[in-house]
Amino acid sequence: MSYYGPLPSNLIPDDASPEWMNKADNAWQLTAATLVGLQSVPGLIILYGGAVKKKWAVNSAFMALYAFACVLICWVGWGYCMSFGDTLFPLWGKANVSLGQKYLFEQAFLGDLPNATMIYFQFVFAAITLILIAGALLGRMNFYAWMLFVPLWLTFSYTFMAFSIWSPKGYFTKLGIVDFAGGYVIHLSSGVAGFTAAYWVGPRLKSDRERFPPNNILLMLAGAGLLWMGWAGFNGGAPGAVSMDASLAILNTHVCTATSLLTWLALDVIFFRKPSVIGAVQGMTTGLVCITPAAGMGSDHNGVFSGSIPWFTMMVVHKKSLLLQKVDDTMAVLHTHAIAGSLGGILAGLFAHPKLSYLFYATHEHHVGLFYSFSQGFRQVGIQLYGILFVVVVNVFVTSLICVAVRFVVPLRMSEEDMEIGDEAAHGEEAYAIWGQGDRLDNSRYGGSNYNDIEGPVKKTGGQIEMA
């Protein structure tokens, strides 16, 4: 719903900035939101596209692109109000359209910002959560099932987490949980939901699970670089202001990420005798995720933990666990996001500095780490663990229900024949159309020529392609 009439004079002054709005904060928030958006489009699009086998490059990238677009429409339609609007009950908000005539220009729930800015900022967080879930499902999920899964999971899981943990009216917000920028709402949720959905969808083909080399490591690194740099908006935008807390959050984010990457790399060299590029990207990711729950509250030690504990769960525990090996988590989101996000939340309960926490929460009542106050810190650790349990249970339950419901409409998994082919079967398109002198042979409705259109030195004879 748009507003086509003249704007009320008491709503928008001559310079289009209400007295309560801080222009600098608003400019930074829009910039931070765009940085987070770039993590998904094109960041995770090209990371996924480069990290999978050639035959899955288009499908993997397209799952991310579709999710980004679909989430936006659902978000402005009902998702934002369910996450940050009026209370339906202590864990959930009421569904409502967020494109009302006056609503967009009113002050948001956080900061000196209009709702229009906050809707955009929170949208990119919701979108990247669904795209991270996709990482666990690459290489076999039916795209039509994914098209249904995205709006359903956003509506019945993400909004539940966001309202409970982030909304000022939410149950866990009032308890005093520390989740600065989404270690629980985004990373723990996506890791658990992705792993659960991977269980229901089933594994890739045996040949794909045994050998799944990246088709383009340099492209994967480009996506990883966008992910890292975009995290400045991810954590730096959490305070909703151009503040000391935002500066501290950005610096902590980069220091933790670099430390985590180097820790993971060192462990690879010590135990496997080779410095792995893919391992370095995993260490980078766990560092970014682990710092997120308490980026602005003093987390100097997170990088060492995030580079070692998820490495141990992935390289040691996973290989010895029959349950973990049974579930085919393509991009290891359980380890890089669920484990790292939980770890960051626990570390927040231990290391959250009272004065730094006050910068963000403006209260000394809660949000104090165990190392600074035994009584308050003991309670804080308990709340952090309670939050982890809540996110895990809800996501396992809701994700399972959604997968079962979708399965009644369309198959969750591609057929064995389509999985053998990959992109061409799913979309009629290929990522790298290189054949002969660059001519592409396909039957795509959008993509160039087919066999009968080829001219010059290549021709079709008796169902076979041969050189003229």
UniProtKB/TrEMBL annotation:
Q: Which organism is it from?
A: Rhamnella rubrinervis
- How does the protein associate with the membrane? Multi-pass membrane protein
Name of the protein described by the UniProt record: Ammonium transporter
- What range does the record give for the signal peptide? none
One Gene Ontology term, aspect cellular component: plasma membrane
Lineage, top-rank taxon, reads: Eukaryota
**TM segment ranges:** 27-49, 61-80, 119-138, 145-166, 181-202, 214-234, 246-267, 332-352, 383-410
Subcellular locations according to the entry: Cell membrane
